[in-house]
Amino acid sequence: MDTKSLIIDIATTLFQQKGYIGVGLNEILKACNMSKGSLYHHFPNGKEELLIVCLQTLEDTITKDIEEIFERYPTTKEASKAMIEKLVVNFETEGTITGYTFSSIVSEMASLSDPVRNACAHLYQKIQGIYLDKLLADGFSKEKAHSIAVMMTATIEGGMLLCLTQKASEPLKIISQALPKLIS
Questions:
Q1: Least confident of 51-60, 69-78, 96-105
Q2: Pick from 19, 42, 48, 180: CA 20 to 30 A from residue 114's CA?
Q3: Domain 52-182 classification at class level
Q4: How far apart are CA 56 and CA 77, in angstroms?
């Protein structure tokens, strides 16, 4: 792995675990075993630029995974159930859902930085777009599909946060059972 990719990988994990404010530049440098000069060589605008690149990397990873799941299943109900079940398994085996959630970053940075807020908004829009396309393929009207896609995004993201705060997978299990009933 090249140096820039290493920085992005380590910083993404730290940002997801501790939030943007909770991770200092020195902690990132120590975890990467590098100097400030090396970090600023790859990210001249510093920590915020690094965060935005981390969010873009997360976008690629998260949306690719969701797209693959949604392509494997014939309906939105089946695909969303499979996706949530995967999140539950990840949480139960790893004790976290770091690969999927970025809400802590949104909550602390959305009002402080337009570039970060825009990167987060783009990721949510892309996720909603995957749901929207599948719902349209299921035969829902554009308005109904849009409403359901927003509800799915908010529900699943909220469920992940509840799992993390409660240290239990029950919220996502409940959502997995309830969401298909709402997609009707």
A1: 96-105
A2: 42
A3: mainly alpha
A4: 28
